[in-house]
């Protein structure tokens, strides 16, 4: 955030020999103070596990910066300085260990020999205690002017008070879990404590004294002088005298820094948008001067230093090292330096320099010289290439075929086999028993030109594939992929084809899509059963070639099953039957429902054509023959199935709306209930709970209804598409106008029905409307009468009725056209005959 | 050195990763309540940092459509952010205007849109740079959470001192709002002097649950107990989230009367004014923020943008250069520098700035906008062909760039007119 950096002045980096154990130092491990024996400069005291080091940095290279290093008997928790022994004039050093503390005096002996001056720590007092210590604070408690007392906070939060080596008293607090920082305010003879309740509490020394005696009698409460609910964990506290009457208490929390006067008045609060690590506040000027300014420097976790006066940011700069403790120092050649202790145990001394590092962040500009002419030439080249590609369609076509040429795809269907794995046998076992393998073989001559291939299988409900999509990253030679197709539901079979799509990405990233279509074997969904000769509907197929035996057509079954001229198939899914007969010169297909005819007829025709192609019969043709009743019933059946489908969908929609309402209701009750739970005292929740349970019950039952309803809709959808396909199949044979046929096929959009997607009506209505307006040149009045009501949706009663009427008109028209054409053709033929004669 | 001292030191010096490792080791061998709590605190703080738990203001409030307890659903006219202003900041407005505007002015208009948008992105990135991570608050769950944490009974005498730690742990680490609320209620019952913090924390819970009425109530109550800046910020954020800028401004004013010239409150006020398109007021407040906290990039970025649109690109350039010097470089800042250079007639620097901007840009939207601005540069040199090419590149990188589509459309019209005129001239000469 700043262009400035702290200027390096001195560091223990070179003196630092052994690696410090992480967590061996804390903010109390660093102390800066001035001693009489070294009155020209501040000394820096540093604790490193059980070693105490005293530094006196200077700029002269030849002088040693280290005054002394001394190994003590125990790990050092904290170093403080003060006047603990009144007889000695100089300030003393107190070192806190886990179960003891020692007071030392720093002595200097002028050297008489070449060794120069000598420094040593003279032990004065040593005292051991039983409670494990955490930190200490010292000061002239009780306004004693001659010396400092010692207060040690234990790990359990208790405060023990000592004078030199005598124990004074002990205060126990029962609301401390993690010991927080404590500090002594000399001005009003009080202590600041930070407890685990995240409240700042101020007790006077007198109060604590009484408290220690009171703690014998448990029932008396000790009320602090004042408290502040900081409500975040206080990590550091500093007390600094800012005027002759007042001290300031500065507390650093997780994200805030608060400053109070010692009477509890808040002076300011800073909110940081970074994580503060530690801070140090200091005065510019003397506290008795009215112009004294208190500044706070805060180090952040991303190694930045911020200097604030009140809430205003005065300075910010880079610290270069992560720090855990920061202080000011007045060295011989550096008044007002910054001492920092990094988390690796290195002490740095620096100062706020004003040599900005401008554009330190900015990288060198990309500004290599460019030749405009060359770029122009490149641009022209690219544009002409693009233009060429746009103009020349052939080139694109040839590049397409490159992939097709290198890739060789064979797709085939195997014989249905028993499902031995039982993976899919959740519902009806008989249905899932058979499955049919689809085998895809991809051969690639040059594997380098293909990045990856994705194969997707599309099959019509109620068929399903074991895997709907397979992705191959690299094709090396030949890949064989096998997928299983099986029946999933008891409903009509509308389409027995499986489309396999190959999405091929070539090395240049271009995508080519190829597709293959295969016909599922009839034995997957039908079995030959006993012959049923009486059927309601009859459709005959007449060909211009001699009759072919059924054994040659239905090659999936053994010859014995199909020996006679009449066979009956039973559907495995619906248990319905269909009968095929051979009469003289034509085939007859009989069934009790139209839905059975579609798929067998489809299969039969494909196989028939296939057979004749194999026999290399030229000019093979066939046509359908049916009576008027058949046509009428077919149309009626189709319209009926549309109507039922629409009705069932309306029902489903009703359930879905109900689910939405119930869901909203449920959320609302939950929220209300939560408010009741939370209120003080808790309100009466019984009725709300009853309401919630009831709503939940209704939710569950509605969802079950929806699932059931959805199944029905799916089944009806496949019935609808089955009849639709039959109509299309017949129309295709009898109509000669290919444009009309195409339009009708698109209108029927039987492909748009699959599994959950059942919005057939919406799709069909548009097509129907178009055909009605353009193909059948109806008068405006008729159009208006039949036009769907726009303000209601496609499923509304009136629109469904109109849609049915329109569909009926169109399909009847198509059939009429076909018979008319037929008659024309017959008339023409007769005329020809006459002429010939 | 004893392991408990090491853990304590690591915790106090905020080296939470090492601290957690040591805690896990130490807790294997013995039960220690202090270490347990230190571990809980460390995890909470880490989750808090990762989940932006320290930010009182979330910048993208998610409105729950199903909430029936929201305070107001439809804003009164004139009090909403969503009012359609006549400035160029709304691209959809421009598309509606296309019939009336002439081709050239339309492309100019669209250009300014992009400028606004890119400047805005710069601003937003600037304001977000200081935040650590982007996880959603309340939903961050730390793997390896201690399952066997020994929670305290509510009758335990340590329950009150531990309750805040427990609350934060459940709220941030476990993300279980209801359980956290339970702790809050129990603590309030157990403690006879209710701290403002409990009301504040309950407000946090309610706002996560989308219950704004209760949030407001709790925050107001907390505010009566203690004037803490976090409460003000949360209140403002809540009102902004509910699209009630006037009430939010009122809270700002109250807060500022208590904390004079306080940067976090000032910046919220400025943001609200900015959203309400009162740029003169906003810039005044941003200037105050910049005086209080000169390292605030959001304020500097806004002042720069204001100067840019105030036809003082030279001054804007200086602000942007300062931003460049103090923050890590990005696509937006170079883009803005490039535009400033263009308007200051520093032709030699314009293109390098844009090249740098393209170098730093990562997402297609920004790239597309930069190319759009480059088209504008080309237009101002009179090179229509180059401008057209730039627009084509812009559309190629992001086909959804409406402004580019319109500008390209306009340019094609101009070129078409020119071609027909030329051919007519040729014919006339013949």
TrEMBL record, chain A:
<dbReference type="InterPro" id="IPR055363">
    <property type="entry name" value="PTHB1_hp_dom"/>
</dbReference>
<dbReference type="InterPro" id="IPR055362">
    <property type="entry name" value="PTHB1_pf_dom"/>
</dbReference>
<protein>
    <recommendedName>
        <fullName>Protein PTHB1</fullName>
    </recommendedName>
</protein>
<dbReference type="Pfam" id="PF23337">
    <property type="entry name" value="PTHB1_pf"/>
</dbReference>
<feature type="domain" description="PTHB1 hairpin">
    <location>
        <begin position="635"/>
        <end position="732"/>
    </location>
</feature>
<dbReference type="Pfam" id="PF23338">
    <property type="entry name" value="PTHB1_hp"/>
</dbReference>
<dbReference type="GO" id="GO:0016020">
    <property type="term" value="C:membrane"/>
</dbReference>
<dbReference type="GO" id="GO:0060271">
    <property type="term" value="P:cilium assembly"/>
</dbReference>
<feature type="domain" description="PTHB1 platform">
    <location>
        <begin position="521"/>
        <end position="625"/>
    </location>
</feature>
<dbReference type="Pfam" id="PF14727">
    <property type="entry name" value="PHTB1_N"/>
</dbReference>
<feature type="domain" description="PTHB1 N-terminal">
    <location>
        <begin position="1"/>
        <end position="356"/>
    </location>
</feature>
<dbReference type="InterPro" id="IPR026511">
    <property type="entry name" value="PTHB1"/>
</dbReference>
<dbReference type="GO" id="GO:0034464">
    <property type="term" value="C:BBSome"/>
</dbReference>
<dbReference type="InterPro" id="IPR028073">
    <property type="entry name" value="PHTB1_N_dom"/>
</dbReference>
From TrEMBL, chain B:
<dbReference type="InterPro" id="IPR011990">
    <property type="entry name" value="TPR-like_helical_dom_sf"/>
</dbReference>
<dbReference type="InterPro" id="IPR019734">
    <property type="entry name" value="TPR_rpt"/>
</dbReference>
<dbReference type="GO" id="GO:0097730">
    <property type="term" value="C:non-motile cilium"/>
</dbReference>
<protein>
    <recommendedName>
        <fullName>Tetratricopeptide repeat protein 8</fullName>
    </recommendedName>
</protein>
<dbReference type="GO" id="GO:0034464">
    <property type="term" value="C:BBSome"/>
</dbReference>
<dbReference type="InterPro" id="IPR028796">
    <property type="entry name" value="BBS8"/>
</dbReference>
<dbReference type="GO" id="GO:0036064">
    <property type="term" value="C:ciliary basal body"/>
</dbReference>
<dbReference type="GO" id="GO:1905515">
    <property type="term" value="P:non-motile cilium assembly"/>
</dbReference>
């Amino acid at each position: 955030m700043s262009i400035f950096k702290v200027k390096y002045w001195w560091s223990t980096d070179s003196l630092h020999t052994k690696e410090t154990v992480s967590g061996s130092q804390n903010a109390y491990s660093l102390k800066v103070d001035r001693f009489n024996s070294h009155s020209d400069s501040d000394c820096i005291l540093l604790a490193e596990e059980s070693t105490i080091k005293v530094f006196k940095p200077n700029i002269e290279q030849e002088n040693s910066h280290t005054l002394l290093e001394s190994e003590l008997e125990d790990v050092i928790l904290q170093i403080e300085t003060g006047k603990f022994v009144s007889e000695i004039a100089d300030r003393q050093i107190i070192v806190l260990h886990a179960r003891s503390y020692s007071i030392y005096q720093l002595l200097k002996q002028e050297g008489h020999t070449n060794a120069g001056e000598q420094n040593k720590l003279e032990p004065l007092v040593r005292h051991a205690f039983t409670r494990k210590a955490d930190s200490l604070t010292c000061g002239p408690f009780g306004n004693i002017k001659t010396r400092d007392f010692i207060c040690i906070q234990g790990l359990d939060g208790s405060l023990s008070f000592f004078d030199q080596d005598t124990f004074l008293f002990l205060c126990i607090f029962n609301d401390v879990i993690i010991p927080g920082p404590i500090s002594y305010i000399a001005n009003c003879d009080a202590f600041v404590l930070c407890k685990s309740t995240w409240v700042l509490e101020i007790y006077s020394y007198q109060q604590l004294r009484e408290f220690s005696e009171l703690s014998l009698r448990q029932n008396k409460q000790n009320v602090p002088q004042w408290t502040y609910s900081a409500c975040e964990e206080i990590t550091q506290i500093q007390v600094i005298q800012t005027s002759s009457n007042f001290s300031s208490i500065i507390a650093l929390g997780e994200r805030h820094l608060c400053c109070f006067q010692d009477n509890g008045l808040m002076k300011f609060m800073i909110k940081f948008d970074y994580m503060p690590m530690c801070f140090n506040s200091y005065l510019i000027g003397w506290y008795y001067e009215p112009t004294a300014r208190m500044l706070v420097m805060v180090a952040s976790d991303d190694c930045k230093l911020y200097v604030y006066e009140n809430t205003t940011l005065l300075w910010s700069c880079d610290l270069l090292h992560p720090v855990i403790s920061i202080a000011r120092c007045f060295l011989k050649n550096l008044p007002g330096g910054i001492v920092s202790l990094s988390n690796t145990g290195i002490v740095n001394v620096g100062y706020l320099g004003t040599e900005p590092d401008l554009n330190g962040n900015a990288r060198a500009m990309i500004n290599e010289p460019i030749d405009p002419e060359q770029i122009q030439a490149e641009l022209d080249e690219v544009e002409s290439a693009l233009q060429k590609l746009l103009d020349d369609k052939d080139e694109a076509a040839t590049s397409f075929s490159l992939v097709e040429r290198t890739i060789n795809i064979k797709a085939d269907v195997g014989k249905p086999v028993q499902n031995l794995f039982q993976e899919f046998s959740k519902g009806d076992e008989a249905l899932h028993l058979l499955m049919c393998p689809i085998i895809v073989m991809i051969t690639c001559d040059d594997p380098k030109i293909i990045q990856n291939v994705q194969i997707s299988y599309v099959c019509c409900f109620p068929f399903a594939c074991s895997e709907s999509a397979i992705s191959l990253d690299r094709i090396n030679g030949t890949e064989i992929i096998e997928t299983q197709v099986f029946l999933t539901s008891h409903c009509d079979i509308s389409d027995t084809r499986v489309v396999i799509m190959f999405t091929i990405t070539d090395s240049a990233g271009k995508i080519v899509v190829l597709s293959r279509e295969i016909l599922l074997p009839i034995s997957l969904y039908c079995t030959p059963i006993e012959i049923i000769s009486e059927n309601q509907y009859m459709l005959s197929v007449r060909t211009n070639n001699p009759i072919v035996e059924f054994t040659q057509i239905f090659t999936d079954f053994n010859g014995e099953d199909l020996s006679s001229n009449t066979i009956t198939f039973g559907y495995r899914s619906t248990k319905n039957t269909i009968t095929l007969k051979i009469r003289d010169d034509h085939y007859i297909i009989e069934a009790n429902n139209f839905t059975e005819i579609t798929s067998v007829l489809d299969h039969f025709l494909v196989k028939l054509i296939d057979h004749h192609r194999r026999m290399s019969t030229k000019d093979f043709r066939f046509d359908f023959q049916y009576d008027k009743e058949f046509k009428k019933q077919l149309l009626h059946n189709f319209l009926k199935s549309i109507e039922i489908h629409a009705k069932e969908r309306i029902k489903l929609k009703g359930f879905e709306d109900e689910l939405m309402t119930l869901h909203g209701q449920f959320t609302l009750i939950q929220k209300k209930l939560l408010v009741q739970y939370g209120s003080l005292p808790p309100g009466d929740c019984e009725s709300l709970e009853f309401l919630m349970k009831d709503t939940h019950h209704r939710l569950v039952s509605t969802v079950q209804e929806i699932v059931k309803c959805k199944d029905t809709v799916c089944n009806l959808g496949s019935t609808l598409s089955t009849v639709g396909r039959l109509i299309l199949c017949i129309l295709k044979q009898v109509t000669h106008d290919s444009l009309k046929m195409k339009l009708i096929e698109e209108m029927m959009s039987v492909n748009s029905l699959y599994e959950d997607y059942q919005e057939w009506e919406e799709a069909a209505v548009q097509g129907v409307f178009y055909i009605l307006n353009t193909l059948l040149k109806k008068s405006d009045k008729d159009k208006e009468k039949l036009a769907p009501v726009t303000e209601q949706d496609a499923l509304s009663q009136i629109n469904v009725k109109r849609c049915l009427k329109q569909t009926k008109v169109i399909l009847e028209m198509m059939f009429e056209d076909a018979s008319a054409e037929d008659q024309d053709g017959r008339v023409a033929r007769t005329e020809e005959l006459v002429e010939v004669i | 050195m004893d392991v408990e001292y090491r853990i304590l030191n690591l915790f106090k010096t905020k080296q939470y990763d090492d601290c957690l490792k040591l805690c896990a080791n130490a807790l294997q061998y013995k039960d220690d309540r202090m270490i347990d709590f230190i571990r809980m605190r460390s995890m909470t703080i880490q989750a808090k940092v990762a989940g932006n738990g320290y930010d009182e203001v979330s910048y993208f409030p998610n409105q729950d459509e199903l909430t029936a307890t929201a305070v107001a659903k439809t804003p009164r006219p004139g009090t909403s952010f969503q009012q359609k202003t006549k400035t160029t900041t709304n691209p959809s407005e421009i598309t509606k205007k296309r019939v009336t505007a002439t081709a050239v002015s339309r492309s100019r208009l669209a250009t300014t849109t992009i400028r606004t948008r890119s400047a805005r992105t710069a601003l937003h990135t600037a304001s977000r740079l200081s935040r650590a991570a982007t996880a959603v608050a309340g939903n961050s769950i730390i793997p390896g959470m201690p399952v066997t944490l020994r929670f305290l009974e509510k009758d335990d005498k340590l329950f009150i001192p531990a309750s805040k730690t427990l609350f934060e742990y459940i709220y941030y680490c476990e993300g279980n709002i209801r359980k956290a609320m339970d702790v809050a209620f129990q603590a309030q019952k157990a403690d006879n002097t209710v701290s403002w913090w409990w009301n504040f924390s309950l407000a946090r819970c309610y706002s996560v649950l989308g219950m704004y009425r209760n949030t407001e109530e709790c925050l107001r109550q907390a505010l009566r107990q203690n004037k803490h800046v976090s409460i003000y910020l949360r209140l403002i954020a809540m009102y902004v989230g509910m699209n009630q800028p006037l009430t939010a401004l009122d809270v700002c004013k109250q807060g500022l009367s208590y904390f004079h010239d306080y940067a976090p409150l000032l910046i919220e006020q400025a943001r609200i004014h900015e959203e309400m398109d009162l740029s003169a007021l906003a810039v005044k407040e941003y200037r105050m923020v910049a005086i209080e906290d000169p390292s605030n990039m959001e304020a500097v970025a806004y002042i720069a943008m204001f100067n840019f649109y105030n036809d003082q690109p030279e001054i804007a350039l200086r602000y942007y250069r300062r931003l460049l010097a103090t923050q890590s470089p990005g696509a937006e800042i170079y883009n803005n520098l490039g535009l400033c250079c263009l308007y200051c007639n520093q032709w030699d620097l314009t293109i390098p700035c844009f090249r740098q901007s393209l170098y730093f840009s990562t997402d297609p939207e920004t790239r597309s906008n930069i190319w759009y601005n480059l088209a504008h540069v080309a237009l101002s040199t009179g090179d229509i062909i180059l401008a057209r090419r730039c627009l084509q590149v812009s559309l190629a990188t992001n086909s959804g760039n409406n402004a580019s589509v319109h500008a390209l459309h306009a340019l094609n019209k101009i070129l078409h007119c020119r071609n027909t005129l030329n051919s007519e001239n040729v014919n006339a000469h013949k």
